[in-house]
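[step 3/7] inverse_fold.run input=structure_tokens len=100
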């Protein structure tokens, strides 16, 4: 199993993930308060998260649509990503994702 830790509202929750699902799907299946307003179509930016710096290099670079949305959102950092665009792989074991 792949362990992903979600941090939100002062909580830290460890979840066992399956390779191939997105971070948004994992959050929705486990009642993590992460909104996917466009249903994962990469058009709204409501599922923006922060990836821990140790794991950001394990993710592929954002594609054009995701990068375009991130550039329009306030408070984005170099570790900001859209959860609907992050497909979980075994390299992400131990990754920390901050919601909000």
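[step 3/7] decode complete -> sequence:
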């Amino acid at each position: 199993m792949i362990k992903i830790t979600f941090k939100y509202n002062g909580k830290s929750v460890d979840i066992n993930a399956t390779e191939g699902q997105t971070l948004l799907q994992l959050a929705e299946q486990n009642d993590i308060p992460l909104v996917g307003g466009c249903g994962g179509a990469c058009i709204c930016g409501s599922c923006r998260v922060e990836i821990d710096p140790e794991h950001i290099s394990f993710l592929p670079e954002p594609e054009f649509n995701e990068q375009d949305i991130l550039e329009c959102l306030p408070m984005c950092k170099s570790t900001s990503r859209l959860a609907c665009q992050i497909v979980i792989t075994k390299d992400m074991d131990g990754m920390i994702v901050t919601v909000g």
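[step 4/7] annotate
The CA atoms of residues 17 and 26 lie 7 Å apart.
The beta strands are 2-8, 11-17, 48-51, 80-82, 95-99.
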